[in-house]
């Protein structure tokens, strides 16, 4: 249940972005809204009018400043990374912890990639149900892969589904690494590093500093409380300063490690959007050596 709720919550924030006029949007996603139900759908209906949209964004910004902006901007970043992979002639996209992601439905020319979306069996089953309910067909190039990481091996399940490490692959992990054990993430890095030369992995991470010294981040006090409320107490953080050397140990070369400043300059300012941004989450792009 917790996994499907988290998938719904992220889809909801992406659906919020779709309510803005085209010229203000950070990305176009007409599909996330179709995968919502219950209270999330009611809230989106309320936001169809600009006053409702602005009100709900203000409430969100006040309660958990930077979270909405951070999630929307990181989504745009991953869109850009996938678009670049398509342009460069990659073979495959592997989306780890995909939730109710819609890139396989909406990104231009993504049909040129084989796409594998991996998540918990509950999430995959519910996504299929919601897509069917919304009249959305699973594209021919998309394979949904159920993996219970407590009982199943990612490599085995992916290869059973038809994935080959010989493919030049882009692996993405959006909003995942803080929720899994360091050992599990490192297994994923080792596996990604076995892919064809020039393959890439892009992932978000939360900086360890916020867990060691939460008092330095008073704006995220409520967010940290919410983690405890949902019993997300064993969260994993990583060091920005050590990231390059850390990845090199797995045969990966850091290409980018970006955060709030990058998002503000490249995404918010061109659209004249005023959103606060999280200081505690960053996004990495690394390449297989």
TrEMBL record:
Gene3D superfamilies: Vaccinia Virus protein VP39 (3.40.50.150). InterPro entries: Ppm1/Ppm2/Tcmp, SAM-dependent_MTases_sf, SAM_mthyl_Trfase_ML2640-like. Coiled coil: none annotated. Pfam families: LCM. Keywords: Methyltransferase, S-adenosyl-L-methionine, Transferase. It is an enzyme of class 2 (transferase). SUPFAM superfamilies: S-adenosyl-L-methionine-dependent methyltransferases. Belongs to the UPF0677 family. NCBIfam families: mthyl_TIGR00027 (TIGR00027). Exhibits S-adenosyl-L-methionine-dependent methyltransferase activity. This is S-adenosyl-L-methionine-dependent methyltransferase. It comes from Acidaminobacter hydrogenoformans DSM 2784.
